Amino acid sequence: MNSKQVAELSGYYLFQNYGREPICFSHGEKEYLWDLEGKKYIDYVAGIAVNCLGHGNPELVKAISEQAARLIHVSNLYLVKEQADLAEAVASIVPAPLGKSLFCNSGAEANEGALKLAVKHTGRSRIVSCHNSFHGRTSVTLSVTGREVYQKGFEPLLSKNVDFVHFNSVEEIKSAVTKDTAAVIVEPVQGEGGLVPATDEYFRTIRDLCTDRGALMIVDEVQTGMGRTGKWFGFQNYGIVPDIISLAKALGGGVPIGAVISTPEIAKTFTPGSHGTTFGGNPLVCAAANTVIGIMKRDKLVERSAEVGGKWKLELRSVTSGHHEVADVRGSGLMLGIEMGDMAKEFQKYALKEGLLVNVCAGRVVRLVPPLIISRSSIERLNQALGDFLR
User: What is the CATH number of domain 3-56+300-390?
Assistant: First the structure.
């Protein structure tokens, strides 16, 4: 079967709710992918910041295979050793007093759980979120996603208990957090919103306001977590510790897993029956995630992300210098964005023809979130292609 045949089959049997590129991959290795026709690509998307170890990592494949042969699923009606092991591993990479984990299946589920936890713990009714944010597509997470394009048509399902402020507006956030606020949910970097980082003042102000006014600070680390920004978690770039974080994407290295992580005191709010999931934290995904954390620690991939990404950002700025079409090159670690207006999608098409997979977010920003193991030669290839495109 070739890519065209897969497209025809998909068109016949699948919901058409994704705008897909007309290519289908057969296998991958490190930062490389091959399509069904045998063409090789360099992957700078990594499954949207998911495949942190790249494709086909032998240790991860072995861990998944061996666990699948032993036990895939038993449900949370019973103790799960792999889940307990993963919770211990997560506790080793988060700062105190964080350290209690609840595992689920996705970033949207993690944010849903975080919001439910905050409302139940505080007994308050309102949530503060940001314009241009993205927190998921369930009814609750869509309610706190500050982009009308995602909400349109679903308004009857959306909560009205959300107060939106402009991202990085210190004055607005000061007015928005009140005695009725259960939580402020915020991204360290607005990923889908165009790779826009929070300012130090904004993030620290949120932390101080939540502490002073009895609200909880929820940091959405779904895209920024697991070393993506050069720290284990994006909030660590601001010198604060939130009350709750949501995590997913890279945690499993490709298998679907999410997590709500909080303090022992707040975690006590969820008693049996408060919240749950059939598949969350099953032996297979937990074995995979535990392996991911172990490899990242051993190979110092977080430190590598900071070093390699910092150098790459400077190189991208040099490549784009003097080109008025490029408004900005920003980001940290291996989460980089090139803002270039309408040319962003043109470059995406150009890159695809060159065998380079990049993604455009917010309609104007080329998003680079490659595997954390990306090679120097692949970075140079992207730089060359961008320079050639801009000539």
Answer: 3.90.1150.10
